[in-house]
Amino acid sequence: MRIWLAVLLLCFTAGASSQSWPSKPLRYIVPFPPGAFNDSLARIMSAELPKALGQPVLVENRPGGNTIIGTEAAAKSPPDGYTLFGAALPFAVIQSLYKTSFDVTRDFAPITLAGTTPNLLVANPNVPINSVKELIAAAKAKPGGLNYASTGNGTSNHLSFELFKSMTGTSITHVPYKGSAPAVTDLIGGQVQLMFDNTPNVLPQVKAGKLKAIAVSSTKRSSLAPEVPTVDESGVPGYEVNVWFGILAPAGTPREIIARLNTEMVRIMRTPEIADRFAKAGVDVVASSPEYFGDFLKSEVARWAKVVQDANIKAD
Fold first, then answer.
1. What is the separation, in whole angstroms, between the first and last Cα of the chain?
2. Predicted confidence (pLDDT) at residue 5 exceeds the cutoff of 60
3. Which residues, at least 6 apart from 221, have a Cβ–Cβ distance to it below 8 Å?
């Protein structure tokens, strides 16, 4: 009898807690420094969610440790609905490269896949390559003779090129940098020859004639550069990389809280004003259900684990 009373009391307490949520500010952990779209998404939510929830949402940038520091902080936070976490594509790769105290699919509760954006394959203007087919031919003619920049092991631009190499049977030398800015600077200066990078990061340099665009990584052309073909249509059928952005909570967060957060976030992202802000950043709104994001995340983890293994990618 006492056991049943305890169970009923626990259920009542959990229900009452969910019903009174939120009664204090929420924190939104971003494992990157300010500036990139992951941070911009957090700022959008911190401005819009309080209008619906009646509580502030405080953005907490916790970069470092190849995103492990911020990710671990979120994973170990209480599952009470007061911690949000902003993830991007590297989130799905982290366990393939590092030993972590958390599991990205077990220790997090997906809320929504917010949006996606392609990477743009660009080259220094002096490199005599103007198409994907020419790149493949040049790489096969002199294996290892070409080089490409990335923002570090496990980043989306690194994985984009490793997947390209795997699907085309080419050997192209990887030159990692600590961030997009120094990598693009050296690409413009000719110290490196090629790079996949987020379209908004390099498109201004393309328009200024400092870089040339070869292809986009998605299976459909970018609205920001509709004249640039996809890798898929340029001779590598099935090639696709979409940089994604999503929002999660610690595993165990009550389902009714996850559902409420999803409802409000989807509504926010689908408003014309916010959708326009996504579009100007080169990001397509997805605004998915928690279930869709959960399945998507599992598929991404499996996909990139194979790329890491096949390419023998090691941690920094």
1. 57
2. no
3. 228, 229, 230
